[in-house]
Specification:
- The structure is a homodimer of 376-residue chains.
- The first copy, chain A, is mostly beta strands and 376 residues long.
- The first copy, chain A, has helices at 23-31, 83-86, 132-139, 171-174, 229-233; strands at 69-73, 79-81, 92-99, 122-131, 147-158, 161-170, 182-187, 190-191, 201-203, 216-222, 236-237, 246-247, 254-257, 262-263, 270-272, 275-284, 290-296, 304-305, 307-308, 319-327, 330-340, 365-369.
- Chain A has two domains: 5-247, Sulfite Oxidase, Chain A, domain 2 (Alpha-Beta Complex); 254-369, Immunoglobulin-like, CATH 2.60.40.650.
- Chain A is globular, with a radius of gyration of 22 Å.
- Chains A, B: GO terms for molecular function: heme binding; molybdenum ion binding; molybdopterin cofactor binding; sulfite oxidase activity.
- Chains A, B: Keywords: Metal-binding, Molybdenum, Oxidoreductase.
C-alpha cells in the first residue's frame, strides 16, 4: 500500500446524534482556546484571553527582522518589505472584535466534526498596522485585478490537500475603506504574539477570523477569482456536501452575557442568591452597527430591552450593554440577543449548515438561584 | 422542592467505556487551554501559550493598587500588604515549569470526568516575587505551626461545597529553600496576566499547579493540618471512592516532543517525508533532576538515547533535548520518556487513579511518512 497525502485526512463528517466529542475534536479544543466568558468585562481582551484558532502549527519565528512580505502578481512594482519597512508607512490603529467563523458549531445537531466551539470564540483588540490599500497603491495595481490572495506561513494538510494557509479578498474589499483592511504588526500596542500571527497578519474588520490571515508572507493580485482550498472548499455555507455554497464573509450579529454569580466547577452552572442582579455583556455585528440588545430570563419566551452603551467611535468593536434581573429561587435560563441596523438578529432555533459556520444561535446560561437561607 | 447548594453539583464519576467527551468537559476545554506542542521550542513559553486551568471564574481586578494580602493566624505580627509593599522586599526570579495535576487525564480508560487534558497542560515562565519565607519571618511564626493555608479570590462551588480556592503547604515546605516558595507579582518580567493570578499568586517550584494559588489574598498559619476541599477531597490519588488517598504533591517525570513535520488539520496526524529528521522536546521532573531522555520510533519497543542539554542552573525548569530519526514510508508512533536522578521514569501503560492526577503515561505521536514521490 502506498503512503500518500490523500490517505492522511478523513472525509468531513457529521457526528451521530448521541456521539460525544471525539479525541480529534478534543485535540483541537485543548490547543485552541476561547474567551473565558467573564473576560467579556474588559473593553479590550487581555493577551491570552482572546480566542485563538490555528489550522496547522504556529510557525516558529525566532527573529522577526528576517521576515519578508512580498506584494506581487498583477502590479507594476512588486514589493519586498520587512516589518521595519512597514513601520515607515502611515500607521492606523483599529479596535476590532474578531470571531471565529466556527463559533457555535458544537451546539448544532447534528454536529459538524471540527473545532468544537460553544459560544466563546471571540475577542477584541486594538490592531496597529499599515492600511493594505497603501501597500497596493505603492505597488501599483494593474487594470483587470479581480482578487488579492494572502498567503500565511502556516503549513499543513486538510482533506488531502497540502497547503500554506491562503485566503483572498475581492480587489474592491482589499482597497476599500469601510472596512479598511490592515497589515498589522501590533496588538494592543505590543508586537503580535506568536499565536496571533507574529510578525505580520491581515486584519479585515467585520469579517470572520478566516479572512485575517496570520504569519502573512505574500500578497498577490490576480486577474481571476481565487479558488484555493480555504476559499472554495472550506468556509462555505452548505446544506448538502455537493452544494457550491455561499462564501462565509462578514460576522452576523451576536450578544453574549457575562454569566452572573459563581460557577459550579464541573457543570459551569451559575449559582446566584435571590434579589436584583446586574447583568452585562457585549454585542457586535460585522454587517451593520448593533442597535438593540434584549435579555430574557425565561429562555426566550419574554424579552426586556438592555441599555446599550454608546459606540464611542469604534464601529468594528463590540458594544457593552447592561440590564438588571431579579432572581427568584429556582432554575432559570438567561439569554440575550443582538439586532443590527439592517434588522438582522439572532435565532432561537439553530441555523444549521454542514460546516457549522456563522452560527449565531442565542447563548443560553443555566442559572440556579438558591433559597434565601441556603448555605449548602 | 428546595434549591440548595448541594443540588448544584453532580457527583464525581468515570466515563463509560465508549463515552465521548461530554458538554461539561468541553465547556472546560474551550475556556482553559494547553500549550500547543510546537511551542515546546521556546525556553520560556510566550504569554498566551502557557497552559491555564481555572477552577471557577478569573476574578476581575480593574485596579491592582487596592489589592491586599494578609499574613495572619499563628503569627506575632499580622501583616497587611499591597502589591507595592511586596516590591519593597528582596526580589527573586525563578524559572519554573508548571504542569497541571490533571495533565494526561483524558487518555485514561475509564476516563475520570473533569478537565479533559491530553498531554499539553504545561508551560515554563520566569516568575518574580518575594520569597514566602521572608514574609513569614517578618510576621514571626509562633511555635506549634503545622500548615500555611493560602486563599485565592476565585469563588465557586464544587461537589456542593461553596468555597474560595484554598490550598495549604506544610510549614517546613512554606519556609524552605529547596524549593523556595514565592509570592509572585511578575511573569516573564511583566505584571501577572489576569488568568495567571493578577496581581499576586503563589509559586511552588516542582509542585503541580494546584499548589500555586492564584489571586492570592490570605496567608494563614495554622496549628492543625488543613482539611479544606482542595486538600482532603480533591487532589488525592485514589483507586476507590472511599480511599483517603495519598495527596498530590510534586511533579513526576515527563518528556514531550515537538511533533515533527506538519499536521493534518482535523486528526493532528503528523506528515513527514522520508529521510533524517531532527527531533526535539523538553523534559522535566519536580522530584529530582532529569538525567536521561530516550526516544522511540516504534511505540516503545526499542529506545534510543537523546542528547540532553545542560540544565544551565534552572533546577525547576524543563530541559531541552534533541535526537534524530530517519523516517521511512509508512505509519510510525514516536514517543519519548524521561528518567530522573531518583530513577523514576514514565510508564508505557497507564498509571490509573480515580481523579486522573499525576498521570505521566508517555506521549504518543502518530506520524505518517509519505512515499518519496508523493504529492497528494
Amino acid at each position: 500500500m502506498g503512503h500518500r497525502l490523500d490517505d492522511v485526512s478523513a472525509p468531513a463528517r457529521l457526528a451521530a446524534p448521541d456521539e460525544g466529542i471525539g479525541r480529534d475534536e478534543l485535540a483541537l479544543a485543548t490547543r485552541n482556546h476561547g474567551l473565558p466568558l467573564e473576560a467579556l468585562r474588559y473593553d479590550i481582551t487581555p493577551p491570552g484571553l482572546h480566542y485563538v484558532l490555528t489550522h496547522y502549527d504556529i510557525p516558529y519565528v525566532p527573529d522577526d527582522t528576517e521576515w519578508q512580505l512580498t506584494v506581487g502578481g498583477l502590479v507594476r512594482r512588486p514589493l519586498r518589505l520587512t516589518p521595519a519597512d512597514l513601520r515607515a508607512f502611515p500607521r492606523v490603529t483599529t479596535r476590532v472584535t474578531l470571531e471565529c467563523a466556527g463559533n457555535g458549531r458544537a451546539l448544532l445537531t447534528p454536529r459538524p466534526v471540527s473545532q468544537p466551539w460553544l459560544v466563546e470564540a471571540v475577542g477584541t483588540a486594538d490592531w496597529t498596522g499599515v492600511p493594505l490599500r497603501l501597500l497596493l497603491e505603492e505597488a501599483g495595481v494593474e487594470p483587470g485585478a479581480v482578487d488579492v490572495v494572502f498567503t500565511g506561513a502556516d503549513h499543513g494538510v486538510e482533506r488531502g490537500v497540502e497547503q500554506d494557509y491562503q485566503r483572498a479578498l475581492p480587489i474592491g474589499t482589499a482597497t476599500g475603506t469601510e472596512p479598511e483592511v490592515l497589515v498589522a504588526y501590533a496588538m494592543n500596542g505590543a508586537p503580535l504574539p506568536p499565536q496571533h500571527g507574529r510578525p505580520l497578519r491581515l486584519v479585515v474588520p467585520g469579517w470572520y477570523g478566516m479572512a485575517h490571515v496570520k504569519w502573512l508572507r505574500e500578497v498577490t493580485v490576480t486577474d481571476t477569482a481565487f479558488e484555493g482550498f480555504q476559499q472554495s472548499v472550506a468556509y462555505r455555507l452548505r446544506q448538502h456536501p455537493g452544494d457550491a455554497g455561499e462564501p462565509v464573509t462578514r460576522i452576523v450579529p451576536r450578544a453574549l452575557l457575562v454569566p452572573p454569580g459563581f460557577p459550579d466547577f464541573m457543570s459551569r452552572t451559575r449559582v446566584v442568591r435571590p434579589g436584583p442582579l446586574p447583568l452585562e455583556g457585549r454585542a457586535w455585528s460585522g454587517r451593520a452597527p448593533v442597535t438593540r440588545v434584549e435579555v430574557s430570563a425565561d429562555a426566550g419566551r419574554t424579552w426586556q430591552e438592555a441599555e446599550l452603551e454608546p459606540a464611542a467611535g469604534h464601529r468594528w468593536a463590540w458594544r457593552h450593554w447592561r440590564s438588571t434581573w431579579t432572581a427568584t429561587p429556582g432554575e432559570h435560563t438567561l439569554t440575550a440577543r443582538a439586532t443590527d441596523a439592517d434588522g438582522h438578529t439572532q435565532p432561537l432555533a439553530q441555523p444549521w449548515n454542514r460546516g457549522g459556520f456563522a452560527v449565531n444561535l442565542v447563548q443560553r446560561v443555566p442559572v440556579r438561584c438558591l433559597d434565601e437561607d441556603a448555605h449548602g
